[in-house]
Amino acid sequence: MRSVYFDHQSSTPVLPEVFEAMKPYFTEAYGNPSSLHQHGLRVREALKRARQQMAALINGDSEEEIFFTSDGTESANLAIKGVAYANERKGKHLVISATEHPSVMNSVEFLEKQGWTCTRIPVNAEGILQPEEVQKAMTPQTVLVAVHHVNHDIGAIQPVKEIGRLCGEAGVPFYVDCESSAGWLPVDVKQFGAALVSFSPHRFYGPKGVGVLYRNKRARLVSIIHGGVQEGGRRAGTENVPGIVGGGVAAEIALREMASRSEHVTRLQKRLWSGLKSKITFLKLNGPEPGPYRAPQNINISTEFIEGEGQLLSLDLSGIAVASGSSCVSKSLKISHVLAAIGLDHALAQGNIIMTLGKDNTEEDVDYVVEEFARIVARLRAMSPMWDEFERGVIDSVIAPTGRGTSFSEHAAKVSGKPAH
Amino acid sequence: MSDTYTLYNNTVMDHFMNPRNMGDIKDADGIGEVGAAACGDIMKISLKIRDGKIEDARFKTFGCGSAIASSSMATELIKGRTVDEALSFSNQEVVDALGGLPPVKIHCSVLAEEALKAALEDYLKKHPELATQACKSEVVAA
User: Fold this and answer.
1) DSSP label at B102?
2) Domain around A356
3) How many domains does chain A have?
């Protein structure tokens, strides 16, 4: 059976060159970078090199602006809480988009319980926010604006340059979560007007266990993990040296190969979406059409009348790895907040599948997925009471309304006694 | 790396991939359709009942793998039971027969129980004379 990995947004394989670069730092160069002897100084030098490689990927000026954390979630926690606590006397107001990653959303919720307030900027049906809305939301008490570059679910590209300019005019630090874009799309901290940027090498063929937070020296930031004075006092704890070294190499290769990787997945993305929509009826693309407003790796679809977990499980049995924002897949039984924010009907959110492409995927992979997916959708629809009720005119389609029957949501509310939301 | 890992146990996966009694019954004697407010899943069970006995049971499910497996198993379990027996059917039977479900998926088996009970209610509504009898025996059983 063919094995197709379409979940590069979750993680990617480590490149052989990256793995090779990491190896000596497990067995030979095992010193602690805080130590002052040869063993320590050697790895300290390796960390410096990795900081330079990370800074180069995002057009940062110096390695001193790069802090290493354990992953993207920790970077987001440090960016949000670290800036909020550092500016407590100035004000306690934050501005974020409604579709940030849970690590941003939940860090903000944590601060709200301690007296901070936050304005969440809504997005349009494609998942993109209006920069003017950010400007309107800022007050003299605003200490941070956080908007991601590329959405982790639907691949929508936010107008970060415009937002950065407005933040600059207002003198408010701007944090851009680039976890879903770094290594695939150009990230330029200067063009973005970003005071803080986070990204993780495991999203571009580096190892897990290392996250990166860029911080412009003008932005005040305090540590949220307390201990020694590693990472310029901004993140206590011994650095994950092998991970950081590997991450640096992955960043260097990603920068060098960005154009070709991006071109490759752009071509596959177009083939995948056109293949899917030609083979499957009542299918909706969530987020912008493939093009300038959508990351080239991402396809996020809703298949009407069936649920996402069943699709995911069936695809897995066909050797195809994907993700889903359906409530049945989440541990919280809630649909993805991103799908809710773009106003997607609950029935469609339930049928959600996320496919994210990588540099090693091929056209044959895409064609295999299209074929298998069409087969799986037909099988699951044959099992679904909703498909049958749609065909009998009891309920209507959200994607292509026929004018017959009630909406799925009305129907679901009737049979469950409560609205599905 | 040649091992296959599964989210659910083999029994659940088997009922998801090879569901038993999937479909509708023409001229069903009782139909129940219920939805889970928590997650949005919807389950429908149709019954063919003769002489107070469930002759045939079919399901259709809009939901995850464990919801499909739960409805498949529920229809397997209740075929051949009397209406009275079926009225005291519990989701735990489905969970046990499936060899267990992850804690977050137990509600799928509850949905199967509810769909079955809704189908029985539908049947009893059409046969009020049996309803009293069935209710009586339920009281006695309790």
Assistant:
1) -
2) 259-416
3) 2
